[in-house]
Amino acid sequence: TLGVPPIIVCPPNSRAGMIANKLLKKLQDHLRMPNSQFSAGAGSANLHRPVLVLADRTTDMSIALSHGWTYRPLTHDLLGMKNNKIKLQEKSGPDGSKVFCALGDATSTGTGTVSFDLDPNDAVWSQFTEAAFQDVGEEIDSRLKAYKKDVEAVSRRNAEDVDQAQMATDASQLASAVEAL
């Protein structure tokens, strides 16, 4: 051992916290003993103490260890992602439309809570999980513009008299645009 008791760090109110409390009691009992392993390093106890991090299986350590400006870590931090789910507060926007806010947001005084699953099989989530956040925004914006363009094209064609074969083609184009989103 280093001869110094560690600083124990764990998430509050979790299984890891319960284990940390039990470990802390054991360490305290051990420190009270006259022949403690920690008595040798007592002089350097305040200067160089190791850190013991305890986490349970629900903690995504990859985010804590390699945090960057990518989509997954920022979604985790900003929206409180837990077990691939995010919960958002639903409220009405100024124009009456639905707006979603993070639960911890001070401006979120909405009507209810909405939960979203971030499925690993989702095309957008799997493609942009490790992408830079600004790249994700730009790509979603370009996909939304392409979708609106396709909807507008179908609407324009529907305004004109188009035969049934053309309608089926338009419907398939619209379905592919929705699928791309």
Structure notes:
With 181 residues, the protein is an alpha+beta fold. The protein has 6 helices and 5 strands; from the N terminus they run βαβααβββααα. Strands 4-3-5 form a 3-stranded antiparallel beta sheet. A hairpin with a 5-residue loop joins strand 3 (85-92) and strand 4 (98-102). The N and C termini lie far apart (55 Å).
The largest sheet is: 3 strands, antiparallel
Number of helix segments? 6
Mean pLDDT: 76
Alpha-carbon distance between the termini?
55 Å
Low-confidence stretches are none
Which descriptors would you attach to this protein?
single chain; alpha+beta; 3-stranded antiparallel beta sheet; 6 helices; elongated
Sum this structure up briefly.
The protein has about 180 residues and is an alpha+beta fold.
How do the strands and helices of this protein lay out in sequence?
Elements: E1 7-9, H1 15-32, E2 51-53, H2 61-65, H3 71-79, E3 85-92, E4 98-102, E5 112-117, H4 123-128, H5 133-159, H6 164-180
Parallel strand pairs: 1-2
Antiparallel strand pairs: 3-4, 3-5
Helix pairs in contact: 5-6
